[in-house]
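note to self: dont lose this again. the chain is below, predicted strucutre after it. 340 aa total, dont forget to put it in the shared folder this time
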Amino acid sequence: MNFLVIGLGSMGKRRVRNLIALGHIDNIAGFDPRSDRTNEAKEYGIKVFNDFDEAVINSKPDAFLISTPPNLHMKYAYFAAKNNISCFIEASVVDADKILELSKIIEDKNILMAPSCTMRYYPGPRKIKELIENNIIGKVLNYNYHTGQYLPDWHPWEKIEDFYVSNPDTGGAREIVPFELTWLNDIFGDSTPLACVRKKLTDIPANIDDIYHCILEYPNNIIGNLTVEVISRPKAVREFRVIGSEGEIIFSGDTNDVKYINAEMKDWITVSFDTGTVQDGYINPEEPYINEVKDFVNNVTLAIQGQKTNYSNTLEADYKILQTLYKLEDISEGKHDLSR
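---
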């Protein structure tokens, strides 16, 4: 199977490493219009191109891994659909209608369009899901989740103004809301927006809201409080607590563990996770990203064979989550009718 990684910024290079870790070193090509990025990607021993048409002709890809800024995702995904090429697509925040239309276009094709859902491959969220499915804390009642990292620390090697997270449509905090909802909804069900406050609180040189505070309702009368921000420094924050009728679960990024307790237990049980392999210049381990790409590759094989795929996320689910984001933003501006 041949792969073309489209976009060779930090995430594109990470996807190249993922494929190499899975043993595909001889089948990877990369495209980016920027020569500095293709030159950096040459260090991985892959073929690189600055012209998209040339990249496609020479690499003959069976699958794209689209790691461009979000506003370019659908450009390459639609090209892929037209040419029967499967796609892995990084987390999206714009073009919801195009995402939904794409899901219809590929219905009768033996290809896979796989939206990223990286957090589902992290051990913390996986353990939380397991505990809840096994009814360890009884009926889930409420969660409180806070995640954030100072935006200039995302790419310290480049100016914020040169990075798509400074664009209002693809802003850092705005992008992370659906990124997090992808795993939260997987555990708790489809979310309904109840309230949202979003503002710019800092002097970060970007015309974006740097904090979103959201209240969501889930099936079975579950309430979620989600805070996404790009202001926490000097350390990133990821703190999650879920309360059930019989107990609690806490997930901490600082201690990299999940602990839980219920009414029949005398004390907390703590499950600690390995820090994994962290590449220089990155803060998150490689393993969840590798496992995500492995799942994609395995399902592309099924799609090519005309078999049913079971990748962890779908275009339809991505569309729903983006609708939730847009409704939260409407609520923050007083535009959304919450009457039932």
